[in-house]
Each structure stands twice: as C-alpha cells, then as structure tokens.
Amino acid sequence: MKNLNDYDVDIVITWVDGNDPLWQSEYNRYKGESGDKTVSRFRDTNTLKYLFRGIEKFAPWVRKVFFVTCGQRPDWLNLNCDKLECVSHSDFMPERYLPTFSSHAIELNFHRIKGLSDRFIYFNDDFFLVNSTVKRDFFEEGLPKDNAVLTFYVPERLPMFFVPMANTYISNHNFDKKQVISQNRRKYFSLKNGKYILNNLSLASGNRFPGFKAFHIPSSFLKSAYNEIWEAEPEILESTSCHKFRVLTDVNQWAIQDWQRCKGDFIPRELSFGTFFNVTNDEDIKAINSYLLHSKYKCVCINDDGVDNFDAFKEELTKCFEELLPEKSLFEK
To answer: How many domains is the chain built from?
Structure first.
C-alpha cells in the first residue's frame, strides 16, 4: 500500500536587501508610481542566515529551499549547496510584471518556478523555526495543514487591511458558503481551532463568507490551487501582478490559502504550532528573547512593524539567534 506521506516538500523564501545600491537605483526609477512604500518592507535585519540554520536543524526532511530575490545574493550564501535553488524574479515571472517591488505580485506567481515540488511551504524572511518539526506539521496525507477560521475584516489602517476583502471576493465569487461548511464540518468545527470555533459557530449562517483569519506563519500550498485560482480569476491576479508596489485593490497569497480552505483541501493544525510577534517599541524588543529562546511554538514570526530603534532590534535578534543557532549551516560558505 502506498504511503500517503511519501512526497517531496520544498520551501520558498523571499528576500530583498533594501541597502543594495543597484536595487535602490531601480526602486528610484519607479517610486513615483502609486502604492505602499513602507520602509520596513525593504530593510534587512541581517537574520536571514538564522532562517536557513533553523531549516537545516529543525526541518531536515525538506527536499530543497528555493531562495527568491530580484537577483540579490547574500555574501555568505553557499551557492553550491545541493539543497539550495537561487531563483530570480525574471526566472519565473513574465516580463510584463518586472521589475516588481510588491510581495503580492511575487507570491501569486510561485507556481511558475521551475522544479518546485507540487507541495511547498512559503516563508517570509522574518519567519523562523525555533523547535523541531516533522513533515506532518505542514502537510498530512498530501494536504496542507491549516485552520479555516471565519472572521470579519474591519479596516483600521491603510493599506493592507483592504487586501483580505479583495481575497474574500474571490471566495464568494467561486464557492457556496453553505455547501463548503456542510461538506467540511469536521474541519471548520475541529477542536484544533481552539477558541476560534466560536468564530465559526457565530458566522456559519448567511450566504457569503465574511473573510478568513490570516495566520501570519509559514503557509502550506498545493501548486494545483495556484493553477485553479489563476484559471478562475485571471484578471484580478494579472492586475495585482502588474503593480510595481502593493495597492489597495490587490489580492495576495492568502487568497490561495482561502481557496484551499473553501475546497476543503486542508487538514486542521494545532494553533500551538506558530505565533506572530509584532515589534514596535523597546518593550517589544526586550520580549524577543522569550519568543526565540523559550518558545512553546515551533515557528515564530518576528515582525518589524516600523520599530524606531532599529539598531537595537537587530542587535537583540542577533544575540538571541546566536544562542539558539550558533553553528553554520550547509547553506553558508
């Protein structure tokens, strides 16, 4: 009998070095176009090597890591590593989308990456593995691990909070909410959803999806979901892919997660798998230690939310990571 967990899983990482003079020159050519140019989108915390170290130590079962940039390569990166595939935007994105400074455009086109496995995990460069993982933390019986949690999105600031609404349009345009929940009751009302079962109980009625909660941790994807959503909504995805910067009418990779949730192509995951920590001030910087060195989670996102004391932020991150992951990985020279 075939082993249902006998399949390859890859990781995709996106990264940009906003201090690179060549990148800055290109950026300056297009910065007059509309869109989100928040500084924290492009500044580097110099912690990428620890993401790679964490993958080697805590996820040795991963087949390959696809490192996606505009062509940039950190000086320390071992380009001869067998598990590493360096991919430039121009290697997989149509020319009409380039150059791009929008993560939304890049994320929506991962399925075009040559050699990428049918099942892959997307890591932002501020996602870090901090405890041992197994393949079943991300995929089980070939399906992504995820949590389908219904929620209302009420915009509190620009620009990102309109994107989930655009994603929700795709869900409602292509799926019947009552049918989806009826066919996937055990997934929508799984005890693994913890306190969020109350969300689904209270929002289960009605004809339309209000939206899905976005968990800002590594996302598990099926390439087939990418192909399906591109076939169903080519104009919306094409429009987003053509934007040089993030704009309010964009969709993003969460639309593809929502697509998988609507199809029932997922298996509920324990909420204790990962967490998101927004760093905005000195008190948050002091708390980084507990998230990285004494974490009950397997994965942590340490998000730079425009922290003012950026040098102290980087220093604390490096100090903690050197304690957690002091040894070089095969991804380093």
So the answer is: 1
